[in-house]
Amino acid sequence: MPGVARPRRSVRSALALGLQSRGYDITLMSYRTADEIRSGRVMSTQVMFHTALQHERDLALNFWESQAPRIEGLGISVAAPDAAGGTAGGTAGGAAGRAVDWLGRLDRYAQSVDQRVKLAGWAETFARRGGRLVIHGASVTDLDFFASRYDLTLVAAGKGEVASLIARDPARSPYDAPQRALAGRFTPVVRDPVGRLPSGGLVLGVADTVVTNDPVTGQGANAAAKCAASYLASIVEHGERPFDEAWMRSAFDRYWETARHVTKWTNAMLAPPPHVLNLIGAAGRAQPVADRIANGFDDPADFEDFFYAPDKADAYLASLVG
Ligand SMILES: Cc1cc2nc3c(=O)[nH]c(=O)nc-3n(C[C@H](O)[C@H](O)[C@H](O)COP(=O)(O)OP(=O)(O)OC[C@H]3O[C@@H](n4cnc5c(N)ncnc54)[C@H](O)[C@@H]3O)c2cc1C
Fold this sequence. Notes:
Elements: E1 3-6, H1 13-21, E2 25-30, H2 34-38, H3 50-58, E3 71-79, E4 98-110, H4 115-128, E5 132-135, H5 140-149, E6 152-155, E7 189-190, E8 194-196, E9 202-205, E10 211-212, H6 220-238, H7 245-270, H8 274-282, H9 287-296, H10 310-319
Parallel strand pairs: 1-2, 1-6, 2-5, 6-9
Antiparallel strand pairs: 3-4, 7-10, 8-9
Helix pairs in contact: 1-4, 1-6, 3-6, 6-7, 8-10
The structure holds flavin-adenine dinucleotide.
């Protein structure tokens, strides 16, 4: 069976657990033990929408589903230009002084589980099921070693340093600087998915390591779950054949079919043109628009049909009248 080395533990331990459940021999490397993660500082708050949650259910990793509150909707609230102290984003409420303030209903509920609980729990499950969990930050030298010994080495290091092994793809990365002054600001980037090590060995990037979007649309953890599910299917379907560069590129291309919608939408939201602002405003007057935008957080591919092109946006709004 192919062995897969992964230099970290994070949301993508879902991929390690998924492969493990299918009989693959997996080594997972992580900076921190499960206890260190559990007692560490709070990570970013992540709302996971239906499709991403379903991937976790498919792998029977939804350990906390019955305990976590169900999120039935989401809203956009933007302060009016002359309102003092307003914020953008978040839930609707307190309409006074708001230029935009609405709540869309999700077709299927979302949930948010503290990442510390989730990642620690998954890591312990992986180890309890016989997985090799190595507590050590993976260096390039380690990756060289893994690439020579294992059938496939995946790098899921988030925005960590080893991600720089994997080159930026300028054609898919319109920005070359952070777009907002957020804490932990970073530049949205799509990378060439295949990293070449000094030894000539190859690694395949996973999730944020290959596609990093601005957090404005809250998609990173969702996209990471989708990446894990897509790579899992590509690995299993490939059977005993070698995980060579051509396979790595095809696995990424398959994931990109989903990820490209997330990237396109997130980049559009960083510099919304007038017709997008008009749609967001219309959602405050027409519940179907609010609901459709809300559900786009689960499946951003839908934005292709009504969001980006002014004529499609106009046609959609016109279809709601009468
Ligand atoms: C402010 C903010 C808000 C966000 N809100 C949302 C949201 O609402 N919804 C959403 O879906 N997403 C959200 N995100 C994005 C989300 O947090 C990330 O996209 C997601 O966690 C990416 O998962 P990942 O597994 O690729 O990387 P990460 O979660 O970053 O995990 C990478 C892991 O690799 C480890 N690592 C790095 N280098 C090494 C190494 N050399 N060896 C071993 N381990 C290593 C790190 O310690 C880390 O644990 C938000 C992000 C930010 C910054």
